[in-house]
Amino acid sequence: MGIEVATRLSEEIARYLDLNTRQIEITTANMANIDTPCYRAVGMDFEAEMRRAMAGVDAEDGSDAAGGVLAEAGAPHLAPVAGLIVRPDGNNVSMDRESLQLAEAQLKFKTGVALLKREYTRVMDAIHADGH
Questions:
Q1: How many separate helices (H) and strands (E) can be counted in the chain?
Q2: Which of 68, 84, 113, 116 is geometrically suited to a Cys-Cys bond with 92, CB 3.0 to 4.6 A?
Q3: Could you give the 3-state DSSP secondary structure of residue 121?
Q4: Contacts of 123 (CB under 8 A, 6+ apart)
Q5: Distance, CA of 106 to CA of 53 (rounded, Å)
């Protein structure tokens, strides 16, 4: 039987990791459609989505400060990526942009995992210190 250890910080990091995972999924979907005629790249504003997710950590009843219902954590707002060059087939996916997005998301994910490990180590150290 395991011990469930959750702190506010660990919950925030978990949401951060969930958003990073979603960013990777969006980016890889764009990459997979590089040869699809008329496909338009989509993206999300990571910082805005993170703020929205953090509002959910504080909302015990599932509503935000304005009283509205929070969107599902796994459903960020997606929008077409502006400013990309549209090729003759109507597709605007830039492999350079998507590769950069993927590398950035992977670095963020590794950082989040390291922070989560550190938080769990801190909590477990505190538990063991109380046991002595």
A1: 3, 2
A2: 84
A3: helix
A4: 5, 7, 10
A5: 19
Indicate whether 67 pLDDT > 50.
Answer: no
Percent of the chain with pLDDT over 70: 80
What tokens does 49 get? Answer: 């989505």
Q: What are 115's two structure tokens?
A: 């922070």
In angstroms, what CA-CA distances link 124 with 13, 90, 104, 113, 119? 17, 54, 30, 16, 9
Are the C-beta atoms of 41 and 94 separated by less than 8 Å?
Answer: yes
**Which long-range contacts (C-beta less than 8 Å, at least 24 apart) are formed by 1-10?**
3/127, 5/120, 5/123, 5/124, 5/127, 7/119, 7/123, 8/57, 9/119, 10/116, 10/119, 10/120, 10/123
**So where are the chain's domains?**
8-125
**pTM for the model:** 0.76
β-strand pairing of 42-43 with 79-80 = antiparallel
